[in-house]
Amino acid sequence: MSSEIKQRGSLELTLRRLLADRAGLVAMLFIIALVAAAIGADGIAALTGHGPTAQFLDVGLTPTGLPVPPSGEFLFGTDQLGRDVLVRLAHGARISLSIGVVASLLAAMIGVTIGLVAGYFGGWVDVVLGRLMDLVMSIPVLLCMLSLVAVFGPSLPLSLSVIVFFSWTTMGRVIRGQVLSLKEREFVLASRSMGAGHLSIMFTDILPNLGAPIIIYTTMMVPTSIIFEATLSFLGLGIVPPAPSWGGMLAEAANNSIYMFAWWLVLFPGLALLFTTLSFNILGDALRDALDPASMRNKLQKKKKKPSVGTAS
Amino acid sequence: MIRFIASRIGFAALVLVMLSGFVFTLFFVAPGDPARIVAGERATEAQVAQVRENLGLDRPIIEQYFSFVGRSLSGDLGYSYRNQQPVLELIKNRMPATISLCVGAVVLWLLMGIPIGIMSARRPGSLVDRLGQGFVLIGVSFPSFVLGMAALYFLYFVPRQAGFTLFPPGGFRPFLPNPGLWAWHLMLPWFTLALTSAAIYARLTRGQLLEVLGEDYIRTARAKGLSERKVVYKHGVRSIFSPLTTQLGADIAALLGGALVTEQVFGLQGIGSLAVQSVQTQDRPVIIGVVMLAGFFIVIANLIVDFLYILLDPRIRT
Amino acid sequence: MTVLSVRNLNIDLPSGDGHVHAARDVSFDVEAEELFGIAGESGSGKSVLSQAIMGLLPGAIISGEILFEGRNLLDLPPREMQRLRGNRIAMISQDPLSGLHPFYTVGAQITEAIRTHRKVSEAEALQEAVDILGRVGIHDPDKRVHDYPHQFSGGMRQRVMIAMAIVLRPALLIADEPTTALDVTVQAQIISLLNQMRRELGTAIIMVTHDLELLSSIADHAMVMYAGNRMELGPGEAVLTAPAHPYTLGLLRSSPNHESRGALPSIPGQPPSLLIEQKACAFAPRCAAAMDICHKERPPLRNFADGTRSLCWLEDKASNTAAALPAIPEEPPAVAQSSDIVVKVSDVRLTYGGRSLFGKSINLDVLKGVSLELPRGKTLGIVGESGCGKSTLARIIAGLLPPTSGDVTIEGQSVLGLERHDWVEMRKRVQMVFQDPFGSLNPRRRVGSIIGDPFRIQKVAHGAARKNKVRELMEIVGLNPEHYNRFPSEFSGGQRQRIGIARALALNPSIIIFDEPVSALDVSIQAQILNLIARLQRELGLSYLFISHDLAVVRHVSSEILVMKAGQVVERGETEALYHHPQHPYTRELLAAADPHYRKSGGGLADPQSSGATP
């Protein structure tokens, strides 16, 4: 019995389990380093003496006008305009991280609220909200973004709103499903029979049981949002140049296939993007394993354990 | 069942109405004077008025909307600002590339994702499973345009530097007369577009199959003396078709976005790159046409998926 | 002839927390055509045992021998084992709802079983499937063979499962809780069908169940398991009438079937964790007759004259040992009772209206005019099978669900049409205790706050006062108040039910509605909870509405009983009168189904009662 007890609730054990996951630990360290780089981006710029949008037409370009490869002066090389890739990368991290985190948090809030309301009240409320989620999911996101940009022009708030608008549905669905089964549990009926109101039931009875999926899916939404933003910038629909963003840097590298001859233009932003999304995904997996030990990964163990109901009486 | 079908068709209609409403509002109602935009910067007031009348912009909004929908449904998507070609014509020319890309990618991701998921689920925790999980992780983390650029660099550029051509740099070749050339040109785009979804399907397949394999009816199948292969494939995999179909329906909208990015990376002259170019040139009729057409495709594809779903699950059918 | 012979079987299941010792040195023989019963509470290892015989325990560490028709199954290569499964050894599982594949017709599933082991054409196999479906009591088998499982009712599905299991005439059929998921009257039909089939086909049956009485009344031999040990093994009749092991005795005595009134002699405590290697008698900590040696050494196997064997240090049968009897708790005198009516339900109806797609209105009558009265300090039992509307009635009385028509008054005040404020006030008078001890407590909240919930919601007693009240309540229901800060998952099923009862007591309600409060509990724990419920009534003068599908339990606690069927009260009466002189045929059917001796004779219940199709 003892082991089953502690799997629930105890923050300490969750943390311990999380720290025991080596991949998760590495991912967390990478994320911390990235956050540090994003915060210290100006510091990096000052240290190298290269501003994020400063063009070093003399030292940053070869005599034929091509970007220079990584060197002592430019650790990650320069781009086609002679700008320092490293400095731009650090500044780009700000955009990626802030969009990723802010969009995920906003989307999570919307998703949890709508999922909770839909699942809890059921009936026509659920039908309407469920259909709304279906609707949002069957809209071609990029094409909508394209139309919006065609009318309003690209901007950061527009990107953010579109990302949020199209990513809350996953959370909404997960939460709705969980609430649907939670509200059928007898402890909800028990609270109701004692006279608890809807808000009290939603917040004291149901919400605390949603902690694990909320944390896990919010974490998983971060890399999706980051990729989303990078893709928008790559297509020229997101961050407006010359402000540095990873997607934009990759777009410039892809322009005229310049990266074929200046590999560092793709390698560094590409890897930064890949490692960031990878880290958040690994962290998400690790969180799921730590918070929700009965999930897929442990399915086998659970199956074997099933006959041993030794603790229940 | 009739109810189910009716509700799905109703929903499809709703999607179309919403999408057309969105596009209509965005381009005809919201900012500025569309007649001025259509007539061009240097047009005189009289010309603008003429355009306004031609486009029916002086009539009530609701009426305008219905005539817009009516025209769209009859295939009249207007003319491109840039070269005065009919939008439908432009889209038709771009269609083969996009359809080839999408269909091929869907087939590829199903062929990659489902088997990987099944192999993972058959032996959870094994080396095969861990490799599968690794594939999933990389797949969902790799932005497709980065993958595409990497593929071009390593599979086209590097070999070419070494003096031989492994894959072409991009571009689209029609299916006929040379299907081999067509497939060769699409190989990298297919893979680029399919990887993320393959990973998602592998994850979904694994999760669903693991759950199904813990069901009582699987134990019944084993107790019948069926071989493990039959247990997994006939009884287990059969049960995960329905959730996979649902996922496929949800992915169709995302597929078009993925195609857009992929076309951009590989310079495929498809609908997606047409849309991106149109945004750059402010060619609004083309954007509207592409969005409406995409919406129509999504709706049709979703309906097909719904019918598939009914076919697959006797509990809905009977 | 011995079909199956299990010798010194040990089963260890590796788990995240260490090895679960699911079976310890278990031996038994099953003769041809006999019905061999394995009984035990949850966690006793009975289901693991049956899966081990089927070879369906991947990853388990098994030692000993399982000899089937002379071959040791544990040594057989997987392919050989696969050839035996379904063909010579068949299995039916507990839940017919999930035991059949939802996407294949029952015909396809049966013919698959046939064609896996025999080279016959599809048409021949289908004919066999039709034949066997007819034999297990499916009407129109040639039509229904093409139906999907969801088109059958629960009982009919279990018949299909049986058909699929016996179609190849196996030498051994393992039935793992074959009737637990079914209604009482359907249970009796399935049991008699199994009995009939084994005689007709010459199949030996191993029946695994938690219902010892059912088992020993029909089984030729019965084995009682506890914490992975074979406690007792003997002829069914002998185990039932003269149990040799104190555990068997305790189980039988704690069942409400035997003591119709008064406190039940319950077995104290809980089963041990199977993660710990047992060195002494596993039952010793709970045994009334435990001696010093019981706590130190593994007990020997005793043989008795009537063929019973018992794993116990007692030299005589437990039924002959005075000390082995579980203690009957003392009964304090009841508080004085007045006889006013606490709850009055008059002609309550509930109809779910609906309209089909073609405009035809379809009304589902859940309750068709139910009336009842509950006097103060008494218990009114409501008994009926699933879907009879008893839980719906409970929710209406509790004010959680408005009826279509009729009235419910509690202490003279109607619970219907109340303003929000009055409704909340009314909550103080009616409390509910639910069935599922896992579902009725919020897993994320501490026990102290769960029991304190009524105070929080009703805004009475704050801070330290609330905490003291909660501790007091915990003490009243027999929980350690020190466990105030624990989570529900740290408690056993029985303790959780105590928590639920404490919560219901918090506001001194006029009436407590128990909705199947013990049906998820094992017999030995059930007795503890029933005793607690009875004690609280006597001490606090509470009025109860007690809802259950189990007639024996209802009879034990109630002064008056209401029998419900399909939304109607078919019979009501004083408990003993109703029990001994049932008037309505349905009551007689329920009584018959609940009576093990009636089941054994199998008379009159073999025919399915309905065509069994679900609309």
Give a quick rundown of the structure.
The complex is a heterotrimer of chains A (313), B (318) and C (615). With 313 residues, chain A is mostly helical. Chain A has helices at residues 2-7, 11-20, 22-39, 41-48, 85-121, 123-137, 141-152, 156-184, 186-193, 198-206, 211-234, 246-254, 264-291, 299-305.
- The end-to-end distance of chain C, rounded to whole angstroms, is 46 Å
Unreliable parts of chain B: none
Q: What is the global morphology of chain C?
A: globular
Alpha-beta classification of chain C: alpha/beta
Count of structural domains of chain B: 2
What does this structure look like?
The complex is a heterotrimer of chains A (313), B (318) and C (615). Chain A has helices at residues 2-7, 11-20, 22-39, 41-48, 85-121, 123-137, 141-152, 156-184, 186-193, 198-206, 211-234, 246-254, 264-291, 299-305. By secondary structure, chain A is an all-alpha fold. In chain A, α2 packs across α13, α5 runs parallel beside α8 (156-184) and α11 packs parallel to α12. Chain A is elongated and about 80 Å long. The model of chain A is unreliable at 1-9 and 295-313 (pLDDT under 50). The relative contact order of chain B is 0.14. Chain B is mainly alpha-helical and 318 residues long. In chain B, α1 crosses α4 (61-73), α7 (144-161) crosses α8 and α11 (271-280) runs antiparallel to α12. Chain B folds into two domains: 2-73, no CATH class; 90-317, MetI-like fold (Orthogonal Bundle). Chain C has 615 residues and is of the alpha/beta class. Among the domains of chain C are: 1-88 and 208-257 and 265-328, P-loop containing nucleotide triphosphate hydrolases (Rossmann fold, 3-Layer(aba) Sandwich); 332-418 and 510-517 and 542-599, Rossmann fold, CATH 3.40.50.300. Chain C contains 21 helices and 22 strands. In chain C, α4 (106-117) runs parallel beside α7 (154-166), α7 (154-166) runs parallel beside α8 (184-201) and α8 (184-201) packs across α20 (585-594). The longest helix of chain C is centred in the first third of the chain and has 18 residues, at 184-201. The two termini of chain C are 46 Å apart. Chains A and B meet through α6, α7, α11, α12 and α13 of A and α1, α6, α7, α8 and α10 of B.
